[in-house]
Design goal:
By secondary structure, this protein is mainly beta. The chain is built from no helices and 11 strands.
């Protein structure tokens, strides 16, 4: 029997297990991962204090090469999958690293932990650990 894709499907934010940066807080959130021919498409949205926060869809091309990030001139992203349940990403702007992260699905497939660090659009340094439960 073939094992189910560890990332594909819907995920719900678990705020009690997450650790947010003060400038990047979300109290409610959903995330959807779809398998593509060369990696994944991830769509996430959330809200905090009634304000809806929509994220741009993220494309993870798992070919170990840098690719331009749509809508972010001068920014490239690199994604790799060192194991079936792990995706590592790095973003650069003008050759300088502006963000790094990992997405790790637990062995039982029930949770996804996203650990991200970098510099946001307002040039503030951030670090978050966000835990998601499979739906």
């Amino acid at each position: 029997m073939e094992r189910e894709d560890p990332f594909a499907g819907s995920w719900k934010l678990n705020p009690e297990k997450s650790h947010f940066d003060p400038n990047h807080r979300v109290s409610v959130g959903t995330m959807r991962w779809e398998r593509t021919a060369d990696g994944y498409l991830m769509k996430a949205e959330g809200s905090h204090g009634g304000q809806v926060i929509q994220e741009r869809p993220a494309t993870f091309v798992l070919d170990d090469k840098e690719h331009p990030v749509p809508g972010q001139p001068g920014t490239t992203a690199f994604a790799s999958s060192p194991a079936p349940n792990i995706i590592q990403v790095e973003a650069k702007n003008a050759g300088h690293v502006v963000g790094k992260g990992s997405y790790i699905v637990s062995e039982d497939g029930a949770t996804l932990t996203a650990t991200m660090a970098g510099t946001d659009a307002q040039q503030r340094i951030f670090q978050t650990v966000v835990v998601w439960d499979r739906q």
